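sorry for the late reply, my laptop died twice this morning and i had to redo everyting from scratch. anyway the thing you sent over, i finally got around to it. pasting the sequence first so we're on the same page, its 239 residues, then the predicted structure underneath. double check i copied it right bc i was rushing
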Amino acid sequence: MRLRHIRLIAATGTAVTALALTACGSGTGTDDEGAARPTAAAAEQAAPRTPRATGDAAGRTAAVTPAAARTHAPGAQPSTAPPAAHAGRSTGTRTGGSVVLCNGANTTVTAQPLARPLDHMLLTVTNTGGKTCELPYYPVLRFDRMQWVPQADESTRPQAVVTLAPGESGYAGVLLSAADGSGTGGRTAHKLTVAFQGLTPDSSGGPSASPALPAEGVYYDSALKVTYWQQDLDAISGW
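ok and here's the structure:
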């Protein structure tokens, strides 16, 4: 009777041990008390992911509004500082670098008062560089310390941007004063600064030029205005 009791106890202990091992293997035993262990798939899902740039975002920089593009205040000139968003344009570089902007660094500029038509002056820009250059818009003039910017005659806007091959010249006309005497604030200037515009209105096209004026100076008044740059002199011969 005693031997049978001992065998029963031993069998029971074996069953209990097997049950304990089974519980541990299923994750419900004492080793798994607390939070459940994450599976490999759950761990991958919970792990933080580093955002991957799309092809569009990775190959594109944010657009920046050009700091140099602005409306002239009276007497102001386009800044020679490159615009932030169009740095290549402000230095004169065009697609592929084969065409640049005309400015005081790669041209010579002359200012010639005309006998006819009266009270007019002719600006001539000659490309002295080794690359074709462009003359967008119109010249921005400043006589002496003039505190306002002469406007352009919109009727002279050309169909295309003036393009000068090395050695070629472009032109602009200047109306200095009203022939009928209706202009105001007339004075004689002895210094002229010609600023060049970039590919966007009022942006800088690069260094300015200072063509010589006659020794006696040039008289101008409030009627002062300019034409757009022209490819041919005939385009403004009757202006």
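The chain has four helices and twelve strands.
thats about all i looked at so far, will dig more tmrw
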